[in-house]
Each structure stands twice: as C-alpha cells, then as structure tokens.
Amino acid sequence: MSSIWTKARKNTPEIDCSLCGFPTCATFARLLVTENIEITKCPIISLEDYSDKQEELTRISTDSRNITKPAPEQPEGGVLLSKPCMDSPDLLMAEMRIFNGVRPGSPQRFGVLDPVILCWLLDCVSSRYQDMRCSKELAYAWGDIEETKVHILRDGRVRMRRAKGKDHALESFRIIERTVIGATICNCCGHDLFSVLVGLAPPPTEETHTVLKAGSTISINSEQIEWNLKNQSMEVDLGKRMLNLIEPIYDVLTSQLDLMISGDFTSENTFDTRPQICKFIGMMLESSTQEYVTVFLKGLAHAHFLDNALQGLAELRQLTNEQQVNTGFVIELLKNAQKKSLSDYETTSLDNSLILMVAHASRVERGLSLYEKWI
Questions:
Q1: CA distance 22 to 20
Q2: Sign of the four-CA dihedral 96, 102, 105, 110
Q3: pTM for the whole structure
Q4: Pairing relation of β-strands 148-153 and 130-135?
Q5: Domain locations in the chain as residue ranges
Q6: Which of 31, 130, 213, 335 is most open to solvent, judged by the fewest CB atoms within 10 Å of its CB?
Q7: Domain 4-66, CATH 1.10.275.10 — does that match?
C-alpha cells in the first residue's frame, strides 16, 4: 500500500525544478504534509493540467494524521537480528537498519529513505545483485546477491535471507548502505542528504542536520562538506578520478545548452550518464576512498543535479519540437539560465503557458550553478 508520502509526492509535478523554494518535489510533499505549507508555493500545481493533483494534495495535507513516531533502537553495526534459516541451518536470515541520524526514541517525522533517490542509486548495483528492482510507488527495493534475497524498505530496514553467514550479511549491508546513503532524509528539515551536502537545505533547526549523522557502516565527515577541487586536501589521483567521472556530464550539459541557444533543437543527447554515475558509486565502495567518502557523496550529489538538468533540457527540446512553445522564448530562457539570471522571471506575472518552461530552465540553471561553485 502506498504511504502518505508516496501519495503526496505522486501528486506533485515530479520534476524537481525548485521554483517552490525546495530542491525536490518529494521535499515539498513532505513539508506540505508535516508543516502545512501553502500548495500555491508550487507555481506548476496551479496550472490547468495539474488541477486534479492540486485537489488531491489539498485533501492529503488536510486529512493527514499525526505521523510522527519514535525513532527505533539502532544496534551497533545496524544489525537488528540474525538467525539460521529454517530450511538451511548453515544459511542466515538477518535484518539490519540504515541509520538516518535520529536518536532512538526521538520523534521521527519522515521515512528514512527518499524512494526517488533510492531507485536512482540502486540502478547502479546490477553488477553485484541480480534482478535488483526498485519501486518508487511502493518505496521498496528487492533483488538477489547470488542466492541471498535482499529487501530494502523506506524505513531503512534491510532484510536478507539465505546469507552465507554473518560476515557475508554485514558486507552486503555495507555495500547497500554506502550505495543508498544519499537517499536518507533529514528529520529536522525534510531534505535528502544530497540536498544538504550541496547547500540547498535551510539552516538546521537543531545543532546540525540530523542526516549528517547518518550511517551505521559509514559516517559523514563535517570537515569535508566544504571540500572542492580548488581547496582539495585529498589524494590528487582520487580527485582527478572523481572529476573525470563528473566532468563529462557537465560537458554534455553545456554543449547541449549551446546547441539549443543557437537554435538547434534537433540534436538529441545520446550520452548515457548512468555508466559515469555507476562508476562513481563503485569508487565509493573501494577501500582506498573510505577516508574521503563524504567528498565522494558530495560529488555524487552534484552528478545527481546535473542529471536532472539534462532532463530539463530534454523536456524543453521536446516541447519545442512539438511546437507547444515559442522557440524564441525558450532560447531567451536558456541564455538567462546560462548567465544564472532566471530569478529575473517572476512566475506570478507570467502567462500559465510559460511557467513550465521556466521550471525546466530552472533545472538547468541549478545544475550549472552548483557544479561551478563546487569545482
């Protein structure tokens, strides 16, 4: 059954344009449910094509019950329980929990994992797991590692069956947690770890963002959060390897942007970002990178928003090719996105037919801006 979070997110535009002031539609949905922010903060939801979604969001936010629960106990290493399989005593059943930084017993407002980012990240573990599948609607992922059955739930639980002993289960959990830790949700502000690391989240309501304390087999190094290639203090080879994976995504974004500004809306992007992103996650699992895991998480967060920017460009190209929009206005928008001056456009004064274009251009501007600050 879909949770209230899934139902709320499904009734947003699901484009993560940030025009509402929040970096993702999932964050907007979470805060709509818990803090009763105004639906009108999202300028897209007021468009005629989204009228049904606006009605449903209003109902969800009005009818939502108290959904805060005490955070569960977090045993050392994240292991909740383990016992032999009934049909194979030499194999193990285990349940572990990805930690989102909320102290046991403290009020926990959201789920542990953002399903959209979870599925985005789990696309990259097919080399280690067979038939790994992830449902954003169910907030649930499942797959096999050799003969071991793995299930990942939005509350952070990782269930395994038929593991080849405790060490094997722990190593599998380590791989999973390091792969998906970017999807953890901050309890104090509702933003995901990626958004916090790149500075898109507001100042914490507590001493620090709870999500910066996330992880059972991993820990976030606060001193590395401000790391960039200009002030790098890590092994030069690691920095170059990381840049070599992200830079091609940025280069494709800027080259596609230049083409569209020149009036060429026919040259579609054929570059597949997934291999680059998956190699990035693979690097995070190497023993040589463990000291700098926060740096790599921040780099992966930038890759995530660059990927979203490419999707924004693709949407604008499609709208233009379908002659649903004015080409001249799109070019003007993209020039302003390139100059980081889209804030000059007040969506409240724009015709409804133009707002969606501004939203997609905003995705491009954000990707460019974040990367150029970081690099």
A1: 6
A2: negative
A3: 0.93
A4: unpaired
A5: 4-66, 70-220, 236-374
A6: 130
A7: no
